[in-house]
Amino acid sequence: MGVDWTALEEAIRVSALRQAEEIIEHHPNEVFYAIALDGVSADETDHLDLPVLALNSLQALARKQKEEDDEEVVPVDDFDDDEDEGFEERPDAEDAEGLGRVYGHDEDDDDEDPDDGDDEDIDAILRDLEAMDSVEDGGFYSSKWNPPDWFWCSIELFDESASDLWSQALTSVAKHHGWDETNRLYYEMLIRVTDSLRQSLAVGRNADLVVYLSDEEHADRILRRCLTQDQLAKHFPELAY
């Protein structure tokens, strides 16, 4: 069983374009910043899968971030000065004052907060962490560029029977002609699809739309193939030539 690469490319392109257009048209107030073909892998396995479609908008990204921030806020109950019910004071508690003298603690130092000197350092550390987070927010390995984390993700391009037929054909070719060569042709074809999708969908409010083939193991090379130089410079400057 062989693969009609031209037919497969056109089928993926038409389905991805149709479904992406429907989502974009049904959300006129959203600015879509990324579309990805996801779910394929360059690692050798016993079969090749068809990609799934994923989209995300700036508004959806902000909503998700807000939800995550809200989940991280843990309410802290005010502590009452009164002792918990059922708490029994140790009979030797009255000797605590003496222990302070034994370990070199002077009663005159009681008004000093030993943590006062650390407050400024802690604030500086927190500011540094926040600055690091803001820089990493746009990194490729953040949720901003990870299709499974997007609001619209894992959208099947074909029904189950059609997907199985294409997958079987790809797998058969890989077994007879070698995984590396088959996978190279497969990736080349998918990259052409992303280029076609960008040309069709990166218009109007979505003019800066990034369309790419998602593969974490080969992200550098694939992003350079899928994105324009202006997009690389803006979103992934470390990859720009």
Helix-strand category: alpha+beta
Percentage of residues in helical conformation = 40-55%
Sheet with the most strands: spatial strand order: 3-2-1-4
The shape, in one word, is globular
Return Rg in Å. Answer: 28 Å
Largest sheet: 4 strands, mixed
Task: Give a verbal description of the structure.
The chain is α+β, with helices and mostly antiparallel strands and 241 residues long. It has a domain at 5-70 and 144-239. The protein has 8 helices and 4 strands. The protein has helices at residues 5-25, 58-72, 96-102, 116-136, 160-177, 179-201, 219-226, 229-235, and strands at 32-38, 52-57, 152-156, 210-213. It has a 4-stranded mixed β-sheet. The longest helix has 23 residues, at 179-201. It is globular. The two termini are 41 Å apart.
Summarize this structure as a short list of keywords or feature phrases.
single chain; 241 residues; alpha+beta; four-stranded mixed β-sheet; 4 strands; 50% helix; globular
Question: What would you say about this model in short?
Answer:
The protein has 241 residues and is an alpha+beta fold.
Layout of helices and strands, plus pairs?
Blueprint: H1 5-25, E1 32-38, E2 52-57, H2 58-72, H3 96-102, H4 116-136, E3 152-156, H5 160-177, H6 179-201, E4 210-213, H7 219-226, H8 229-235
Parallel strand pairs: 1-4
Antiparallel strand pairs: 1-2, 2-3
Helix pairs in contact: 1-6, 5-6
